[in-house]
Design a protein that fits this description.
Blueprint: H1 9-18, E1 21-22, E2 25-27, E3 41-42, H2 55-58, H3 65-80, E4 90-94, H4 101-112, E5 116-120, H5 124-131, H6 144-152, E6 158-164, H7 170-178, E7 186-188, E8 193-195, E9 201-206, H8 209-213, E10 221-224, H9 231-246, H10 254-266, H11 274-288
Parallel strand pairs: 4-9, 4-10, 5-6, 6-9
Antiparallel strand pairs: 1-3, 2-8, 7-8
């Protein structure tokens, strides 16, 4: 094994501030597979997006004020540190099923322009993707978040992990990827190189406190989702999501949009996740077509 030259934190920070390209892959083996990441990956969603009039105002999640505050805090921290890209680290969204946590991740992705990748940790396939595979006789694949960065060439994508149930051991599942002391130099045995995954924006859906309590202190910020006090705010958020999905802002009369969303919201009955609701609304609105 050849050891890679070390890069100190100040050096890494200076490089990022000067040019927001994440110095992502450094070889640590004789024949590394870097997936092209030795050339770096872009760090996106900076500038005006980090201002108080930016993301906190444009994610349209006022019905979940704790989530809006968490995003605003992340933006302030980036500005204070002179880091011109969006980063919130690991955010654990605690709430009941269909509370809108996946919807929140999609709203954040839409507002930032960051690529969003979703993994279901409740399935064996999803857990294998998160940990990577290196079984004998199988092609060695790095953890899915690494592949997500390689595919998008974005160093700070949003990774949404769904299906974290009671008993899910997040430390075993993704510990090396989210440990703040190791994430900036995650050594991948699958690729033979050290990777900086410390800028990935993790959103983890957790159904109860047990999953959060399994994480070491300081590893994640916890945001609790509650039933909205005013359904009209949830309605506005859904309207925004539908408009984004259809790319039809201004193509439909506002009242037509509101009427369709209200009807679907009233018919939810707590059964369908908001993401599925948005999909159904998109099909409904798409069938209606533009209103003259």
């Amino acid at each position: 094994m050849k050891s890679a030259p070390s890069m100190t934190s100040p050096d890494r920070e200076a490089a990022r501030v000067r040019d927001p390209i994440l110095l992502f892959a450094q070889p640590v083996a004789e024949d590394p597979t870097t997936l092209g990441l030795e050339r770096g990956a872009a760090l996106l969603a900076g500038g005006e997006a980090l201002l108080p009039s930016g993301l906190p105002m444009t994610i349209a999640m006022e019905h979940q004020p704790d989530f809006v505050r968490a995003v605003a805090h992340a933006c302030r921290e980036q500005v204070l540190r002179g880091r011109d890209w969006y980063s919130h680290g690991v955010m654990a969204l605690v709430g009941s099923k269909n509370a809108g946590r996946g919807h929140a991740a999609r709203r954040l992705a839409a507002a930032t322009g960051l690529p969003l990748f979703v993994v279901d940790a409740s399935t064996p396939a999803g857990r294998a993707q998160l940990k990577g595979t290196a079984a004998p006789g199988c092609t060695a694949l790095p953890p899915f978040p690494v592949l997500a960065v390689a595919a998008s060439r974005c160093g700070n994508p949003i990774i949404l992990i769904e299906g974290v149930r009671q008993g899910t051991d997040l430390v075993d599942l993704i510990g090396p990827l989210i440990d703040p002391d190791r994430a900036s130099r995650y050594e991948s045995a699958h690729l033979g190189c050290a990777l900086d995954v410390g800028e990935i924006n993790w959103i983890i859906q957790v159904d109860g406190d047990e999953g959060v309590n399994r994480l070491p202190s300081g590893w994640a910020s916890v945001v609790r989702f509650h039933p909205p006090a005013d359904n009209r705010l949830e309605l506005l958020s859904l309207i925004g999501a539908v408009s984004d999905e259809l790319d039809a802002a201004g193509a439909l009369e506002r009242q037509t949009l509101v009427t369709v969303v209200e009807a679907a919201l009233a018919g939810r009955g707590g059964g369908a996740p908001i993401s599925e609701l948005v999909d159904r609304l998109g099909l409904t609105l798409g069938a209606k077509g533009p209103v003259a």
